[in-house]
Amino acid sequence: MDGKERQPWHTFIFVVGVLGSFGLLSVVNPRAEWSISESLVLRLPTWRPWEDFSLEKEAEAMALEDSAREWAIQDSLAAQGETPRKKPKPGQGFIQFSPEDSMGFSKLVVALEKVRQGGSARIIHFGDSQIEGDRITGDLRDALQRAYGGEGPGMQPLVPFVPMAAVASSAEGSWTRMVSFGRKNDKSPSNKYGPRGISHRYQSREGTGPDAVVRFSPRSYGYARARQSKQFTLLHGPAQGPLEVKWFANDTLWKIEYLDSAARGGALKAVATTPVKSLRLEFKGASPDFYGLAMDGTQGLAVDNVAMRGADGLSFSRMDRPHFIQSLQRQPVALVILQFGGNAVPYFKSKEAVERYGEAFRRQIRLFQEALPAADILVIGPSDMAVKEGMDWVSYPFVDDVRDALRRAAFAEGAGFFDVMDYMGGPGSMAEWVNTNPPLAGADHIHFTPKGAKKVATALVEAMNDELARHD
């Protein structure tokens, strides 16, 4: 430095600057972990100093009674003609309900009986990246469709973010994906996303050909019923101008439909007499927002997989409320499954923050109950999640608190709860699932492998069957 010695205050300013930069980074950094691949995870610091200040009104006390006492009151159900619930044991997958809740999934039972008689019903499985690619949902769908009837893979985004196991898809054109969760610049200006919380639109282009094209076809693998679709419902928002939609079934022009500039949001539907092997939609004209394409049978049970990567499960109440409620009510929904919590776990620095999260989650449950009073709600808690400390993998702080907060929220609102962490073996079990041969969880110690997801799905199916059998 021009022959001058570095002064002590120079070093002090440098150190303070570096620490300040890290502090600023930790405040603006939205995620504690960035998964580059299944085996590579980038960890960055996060700091939320405001979490411990300006606490909201303390969550109302919902402490659970002693386990034996909770389940003892179920004995009275026998006198009402229903089978008492089994007392869950650690490591067993049971759907749990509040001790004061004797109804269980009675609404779902009524809906499934109507399905047996030739009607239709829908189950929507919302979740984070643990259910991407139809994991867990696919096994549940197949079990229920075999038992009650139904075909098809359910609602699909027009441009899937992650390919689905039973459905191959492709798209042409300049498409934009908008989500109700995630970054601000990924959101829709209208705050309307349809029943999935995810929408797409394309950009028109010059020329005589279509502006955009989407294709769907069943894969050669996957569950047989999920690969057979006869009824297709294209959900869309208000028209932005004239639009032509051409439907092609098995490479043959099936039908042409038009929306004029004044068309409101709604649905275009096409029904075939036999399963369609390939479907192509060609769009020409101004793009409305598209909320999804339902690929179903003409009757029976439909089960949707709605994977929301990075979501904490609180975005439902942030959407345009009347629009979201109306979009849910277009279908006879019998059960809503909410599988969240994992993406929130790394952020918590206090139990008070976890309590606030649980209260916010209660508002999501109430929203679905307002929209779908004839539907039951099932909350699925987070898996165990591990972070590396030194040479060891240990459970994230507060992961079990998040699980408990979601269970309290479910019980308080009359919803069921399925405890994935308990089924895995409790806190600390993620490392065991990773080290099992073959592995049941990935090297990031957060996500299940396909075998692990299958194991959880099998437990969920058995738990559902146990609950439904209780009402026979």
Using the coordinates above, name the CATH class of the largest domain.
Alpha Beta
Which strand order spans the largest sheet, edge to edge or round the barrel? 3-21-18-17-4-16
Instruction: Please name the fourth-level CATH homologous superfamily of the largest domain.
Output: SGNH hydrolase
Number of helical regions: 10
Strand segment tally:
21
Summarize the main sheet. 6 strands, mixed
Characterization of the model:
The protein has helices at 8-28, 67-72, 106-116, 137-148, 321-328, 351-371, 399-412, 420-424, 429-435, 450-469; strands at 33-35, 41-43, 95-96, 120-127, 154-156, 167-172, 174-179, 198-203, 212-218, 231-236, 243-249, 252-259, 266-271, 279-285, 290-296, 300-307, 333-339, 376-380, 386-389, 392-395, 416-418. With 472 residues, it is of the alpha+beta class. It has 2 domains: 68-150 and 299-472, SGNH hydrolase (Rossmann fold, 3-Layer(aba) Sandwich); 155-297, Jelly Rolls (Sandwich). The strands form 6 sheets. It has a 6-stranded mixed β-sheet, sandwiched between helices. Strands 6-9-14-11-12 form a 5-stranded antiparallel β-sheet, with no helix packed on it. The chain is globular, with a radius of gyration of 24 Å.
